[in-house]
Design goal:
The protein contains 25 helices and 15 strands.
Length: 660
């Protein structure tokens, strides 16, 4: 049994999908548009729960029929989009990108995309904007909910438990998981079904309450309608991607959506806004529109000449949106309706077989059995560089208090390496020194790093929760007698070049916020760095690791010539590129700070650059960088001899590697 059709719910779907699509295409136009997904969750929870409870009440609920309906609803459009995305990916992508797309396809076809992307999330993860199937994470959440939810409702119904109380209790548990993990484990909070199910259950609770409750009176419906739309608008306007989300902020769109649904079709805004013909039409194509828009935008971004340019031109994005709407309408008209009009078991078998074949095809692509069109040997060398990211492979994991450290060597004199990923990138060199007996026998290397967390007291970014606590704890530990020497390093270019990093600021003893941009945060930070180095140098041998050059020209894919729609090849004719002037100036200033404070500078620029021309390839022509800023493990392991002095006191070990 299905609930009576309500055009206003299709109108609510239109708000949800419109918000998401607009945000993905033009983020600055609707900064909180991503909360449209949360509105979808509430709608799905309400409708699915209503269907299940009505069927249970009628005594004809069947798990087989329930999942057959889900297959007919979800599979047809998804199969078309997955297949099309793979075909376009084969034509456009490089081998590393195509392999990643294969894994995404397996996740999407098996409805575990959220778990796949959760597992991939990390500091060195590929830019989200260039993952063509990233949006399928939300579909994974929903389908996992559809496995768990009928079982719980069926059990509660048979046992005659108070369903509303049972559902509410489970929803509260899920919500608590959400708010307690959103800061320490943001990726888990975003992708985990345990922290997302409550959003679907909010709609489910309303369905449970409405099963026997009378319809709301007219004025209450009007109030709920206005309140619901108001909360949704508030969420779209107030919520930002840099806020801890979902967390408490997710209450705005979810409560707004449930209030709109509770208002019924006669609520004032439901009747005159959400039930508008245009809104209903968009709602009807909302599912295929959601499926199509993201791959098109991702491919447009990938086509941009600059691989770091994640904001294509307005015309390209607008064109992708128009194409999304046209494809969504065609998919709804000729695919979804066609599948619904063929209720026999043959259709279900064909849909199941099609999805299984797509999953198998994705696996074949992921394991490299099927290569894309752009698969030349020199292109593969570039692709290998982007995959090269195992910086701590071979290290022993240790704990320093409650902080994770990565150790190599068994000497009693500990060399403590503190900083962000630009310190982490030298871990392979320390491991290689231990392997080749270049590491002093009385020393051991201990790396304690955190991505985007500069080793400067007082420097903060709101999104990097826990950075200050870890940094302060490790700086205090650096003073202990078992620590022989300390190496401080970070992506100084990322934080201090030009106007400084947007989200960073300095907060010192005065507790005042001093932003990097349009403030004096950079100057205060550099002063804090010098003070910290001076205090450390009074008791320890201290090194300041200066930053390596970085920028778009160092990105491995900048070695590629040609176009994705025509022919591509990698060049070895330009092994160097110009050192950005701002980085040169900062490097000289940091060297002066080190010398003034008693720390020994390790100048990566002096080793990597000559006459302001800096290496971007290795001696064999392979890229020296993993991305635009990080030296790849192979380079630091084989070539970064300028780093050796931190762990080796042998004569001549401080000699720097000549630039090629």
């Amino acid at each position: 049994m299905h609930p009576k059709y309500r055009p206003d719910i299709d109108g609510l779907r239109a708000i949800a999908v419109g918000s998401v699509v607009l945000y993905h295409a033009f983020p600055k136009a609707l900064l909180g548009g991503f909360v449209g997904v949360d509105i979808f969750f509430v709608i799905s929870g309400f409708l699915i729960t209503t269907i299940i409870l009505q069927s249970l009440a009628a005594g004809d609920f069947s798990y087989r029929d329930f999942y057959a309906r889900r297959i007919r609803r979800i599979f047809p459009a998804l199969i078309v989009v997955l297949l099309t995305t793979l075909l376009v990916g084969w034509y456009m992508l490089l081998s590393d990108e195509f392999a990643e797309l294969g894994k995404q396809t397996v996740g999407g076809a098996a409805f575990v995309a959220n778990l796949v992307f959760w597992g991939e999330s990390g500091y060195f993860d590929t830019a989200a904007e260039t993952k063509p199937l990233l949006h399928l994470w939300s579909l994974g959440i929903e389908e996992q909910f559809y496995i768990f939810w009928p079982l719980l409702l069926g059990l509660a119904w048979r046992k005659r438990w108070p369903i509303v109380r049972v559902v509410l209790a489970v929803a509260v548990i899920s919500f608590l998981v959400n708010v307690t993990t959103v800061h320490p484990l943001p990726a888990a909070s975003f992708y985990s079904p345990a922290s997302r199910f409550w959003e679907l259950m909010v709609g489910g609770i309303l369905a449970c309450m409405r099963l026997k409750a009378p319809a709301p009176n007219v004025w209450r419906s009007h109030v709920q309608s206005v309140l619901g739309v108001g909360l949704i608008v508030l969420g779209l306007v107030m919520i930002r991607s840099n806020k801890a989300f979902p967390g408490w902020w997710a209450l705005l769109p979810t409560l707004g959506a449930v209030s709109c649904i509770a208002a019924g079709p006669n609520g004032v805004l439901n009747k005159y806004l959400l039930s508008n013909r245009v809104m209903v039409w968009i709602g009807l194509i909302s599912y295929p529109l959601y499926l199509w828009h993201w791959p098109l935008l991702a491919f447009v971004r990938i086509l941009e000449d600059d691989p770091l340019n994640l904001n294509p031109s307005f015309a390209h994005r607008a064109g992708a949106l128009v194409a999304s709407v046209l494809l969504a309408w065609a998919t709804y008209r000729f695919v979804e309706r066609h599948a619904r009009n063929r209720p026999g078991p043959g259709t279900l078998k064909a849909l199941g077989a099609g999805m299984a074949l797509l999953a198998a095809l994705g696996a074949v692509i992921f394991f490299g059995v099927l290569e894309p069109r752009h698969n030349g040997a020199r292109l593969q060398v570039v692709a290998n560089a982007t995959f090269d990211a195992d910086y701590y492979g071979g290290f022993k994991r240790e704990m320093i208090g409650d902080q994770v450290a990565y150790k190599v060597g068994d000497g009693p004199k500990r060399v403590l390496f503190l900083g962000d990923s630009h310190m982490q990138q030298y871990a392979p060199r320390a491991l290689e020194m231990a392997r080749t007996s270049m590491l002093d026998k009385d020393k051991s290397a201990w790396f304690v790093t955190r991505g985007a967390c500069p080793a400067v007291p007082g420097v903060q970014a709101d999104k990097n929760v826990g950075c200050s606590e870890q940094r302060d704890a490790m700086l205090a530990y650096a003073m202990r007698p078992e620590v022989d020497s300390v190496v401080i390093g970070s992506c100084w270019n990322c934080y201090f070049v030009d106007h400084g990093a947007l989200e960073y600021y300095f907060r010192g003893a005065d507790k005042q916020v001093h932003p990097f941009q349009n403030g004096d945060g950079i100057e205060r930070s550099l002063a804090s760095l010098e003070f910290m180095l001076r205090e450390l140098a009074r008791q320890k041998k201290v090194y300041l690791l200066l930053d390596n050059p970085g920028g778009p020209e160092f990105e491995p894919k900048h070695l590629i010539e040609g176009g994705r729609l025509t022919h591509m090849d990698a060049t070895t004719s330009t092994p160097t590129t110009l050192l950005p002037p701002g980085q040169k100036q900062l490097n000289e200033r940091l060297r002066a700070i080190a010398e003034a404070s008693g720390a020994e500078p390790i100048d990566a620029v002096a080793a990597l650059c000559k006459d302001d021309q800096c290496l971007r390839t290795m001696p064999d022509g392979a890229p020296a960088y993993k991305d635009a800023n990080h030296l790849r493990p192979r380079y630091t392991r084989e070539e970064a001899s300028y780093f050796d002095r931190t762990l080796r006191a042998a004569p001549g070990s401080a000699a720097q590697q000549p630039a090629r």
